[in-house]
Amino acid sequence: MTSTFGMRTPLGRVRGLGAARTGTQHFWLQRLTAVANIPLVIAFVFIVISLLGRNHAFVQQTLGSPLVAIIMLLFILCVTTHMRIGMQVIIEDYVHGEGAKLLLLIANTFFAIAIALASAFALLMLCFKV
Amino acid sequence: MSDIKAVERPLSPHLSIYKPTLTMLMSIAHRITGFGLYFGTLLLAWWLLAAASGPNAYAGIGSFMSSFIGRIVLFGYTWALMHHMLGGIRHLIWDTGHGFGEHEREWLAIATIVGSISLTIVIWIVGYLFVGGAR
Questions:
Q1: Domain count, chain A
Q2: Which fold has domain B22-126?
Q3: In 3-state terms, what secondary structure has residue A128?
Q4: What is this structure's pTM?
Q5: CATH number for the domain including A102?
Q6: Of A45, A50, A60, the CB nearest to B123
Q7: Partner-chain contact B123 A122, CB within 8 Å
Q8: A121: chain B residues, CB-CB within 8 Å
Q9: What is the rounded CA–CA span in Å between residue B6 and residue B8?
Q10: What is the SS3 assignment for A24?
Q11: Is some CB atom of chain B closer than 8 A to the CB atom of A107?
């Protein structure tokens, strides 16, 4: 490893393309969702407080109203994206066995999508009163 | 990468040799709260699915959340959410290239922990005041 490109794979060295402009994608998506999460988390806390101790009919009506449902859907989309790539970093930092790492990365994606879809589905049910 | 062999390399100093500092603790807390919030989304999905399923299912989660254990979990969840949010804001400040000075670092670490505890307490006071709607 005497060249200045010592950290590169042989294929990368041959191509000489660097990260081809996607190297910061993960970093950027984490920041983008972090910024969006700030107002969404604040709105979420307000929504939950307004529903504390209320009966089911009230909760159903509130969560199913367009504004609240849209905020909640954005919150779920943003949070599940943020937590998926956040957990990916944790897995990559601490799990070094290739097999275990791969399985956990797959499980991570499945979990995030399952939470997102279940929550979004429930909200749509509340919106359309089914 | 076929020419790489396993070589015994010296390890860089690891966590255990450093004296714990507040900034270090806040960094660890940021990761731990993120990890906890990840699994906390199960509660969110459960709550929404219960609300969508009907009054009986909703009463089920309601009785769990208002139990002692449920309240402890929710209180912890509130703090984790606030701590991770403030820690995230701290990271966003750092992303702009600011806040790395010796005093700024310490100040931001203190602001994160004091802010997260204060916000959690305020949210719970407001929550108790508004249970069942404004009086």
A1: 1
A2: 3 helical TM bundles of succinate and fumarate reductases (1.20.1300)
A3: coil
A4: 0.86
A5: 1.20.1300.10
A6: A45
A7: no
A8: 49, 52
A9: 7
A10: coil
A11: no
What is the extent of the structural domain holding A90? 23-127
Residue from B2, B14, B41, B85 to probe the interface with A (highest A Cβ count within 10 Å)? B41
User: How do the domains of chain B map onto residue ranges?
Assistant: 22-126
Whether residue A5 lies inside any domain: the answer is: no
Q: Does A80 touch chain B (CB under 8 A)?
A: yes
Give B39→chain A minimum CA distance, Å: 9
pLDDT for the residue numbered A2: 47
Residue from B2, B4, B14, B44 whose CB has the most chain A CBs within 10 Å, to mutate: B44
- Angle of helix B22-53 relative to helix B102-129, nearest 10 degrees, comes to 30
**ipTM of this model?**
0.86
C-beta atoms of B127 and A52 within 8 A: yes
| Sign of the Cα pseudo-torsion (B44, B50, B52, B55, in order) | negative
Structure tokens at A80: 């599940």
pLDDT-derived band at A68 (thresholds 50, 70, 90) equals very high
In sequence order, the 6+-apart residues with CB closer than 8 A to the CB of A30 are A82, A85, A86
Please determine, for residue B1, whether its predicted confidence score (pLDDT) is greater than 80.
no
